[in-house]
Write a structure and sequence with these properties.
Layout lengths: L1 E2 L4 E2 H27 L4 H8 L3 H8 L19 H13 L3 H4 L5 H6 L2 H15 L2 E4 L3 E5 L2 E10 L2 E9 L5 E8 L1
Antiparallel strand pairs: 1-2, 3-5, 4-5, 5-6, 6-7
Helix pairs in contact: 2-3
C-alpha cells in the first residue's frame, strides 16, 4: 500500500528505517572504539559536525562520582523504531492508532479530537509532512525519551515521545524546531 504522506510504501520506509538504526549502532560502536583509543570528545564532535558537548550527550557514558555507577539508565529496546511508528501514524492522521499504546494518564488527557487538533495546528504552521530525522534515544529517570526532528514543506518540528519501562507511551510533544 502506498502512502502519499510518506512518498512510498510503508514496507520501504520500514526497511530503510532498519538500515538507519543499524547505522546508528555502528556509529555508537565506532565512537566507543575512538574513545577507547584515547580520542577526545572535541575530536569526535568535529568529525560528527557537532560540539564536544553534543557528542558526549549523545554517546557518552557518564559515571556518578559519588557511587562509581553508570548514570545513564537502560533504555527501552527498540524505542527509536517505536517512536517513529507512533509519529508515522500521526503524520498519516491515524489518530486512534497513535493513541493505541498510550498509558492511562495520556489516554485521559489527550483524546483523538485533541490530537487531531494539535496536528492540524502543526500542519497549518509548517505545511505537509515530508520526512523524519534520525531518532535520538536517551534515558530520563524511569522513562525512555526519543527525540525526532520532523521535516515539513515549510519548516521543522521537534517531536518527543516518552515511554514507560513496560512500553506504554507516557508523553508526546511537538514544538517548533
Amino acid at each position: 500500500m502506498t502512502s502519499p504522506v510518506l512518498g512510498g510504501t510503508l514496507g520501504e520506509v520500514r526497511a530503510v528505517h532498519r538500515q538507519v538504526l543499524e547505522a546508528q549502532e555502528s556509529l555508537r560502536a565506532a565512537v566507543d572504539r575512538a574513545r577507547a583509543e584515547g580520542h577526545t570528545w572535541q575530536e569526535i564532535g568535529e568529525v560528527l559536525g557537532t560540539t564536544r558537548q553534543a557528542a558526549f550527550q549523545r554517546f557518552g557514558r557518564p559515571v556518578d562520582p559519588r557511587t562509581g555507577e553508570a548514570m545513564a539508565a537502560a533504555t527501552l529496546p527498540g524505542a527509536g523504531e517505536r517512536a517513529l511508528d507512533v509519529l508515522t501514524h500521526l503524520a498519516a492522521a491515524r489518530f486512534d492508532r497513535v493513541r493505541a499504546d498510550f498509558d492511562d494518564v495520556l489516554l485521559r488527557e489527550l483524546d483523538t479530537e485533541a490530537l487531531a487538533s494539535v496536528w492540524a495546528v502543526v500542519v497549518g504552521s509548517v505545511g505537509a509532512f515530508e520526512r523524519f530525522g534520525a531518532p535520538v534515544v536517551h534515558a530520563a529517570g524511569d522513562l525512555t525519551v526519543v527525540d525526532v526532528l520532523m521535516h515539513f514543506e515549510a519548516g521543522q518540528a521537534a517531536a518527543q515521545v516518552s515511554f514507560r519501562a513496560e512500553g506504554t507511551v507516557a508523553g508526546l510533544f511537538l514544538r517548533p524546531a
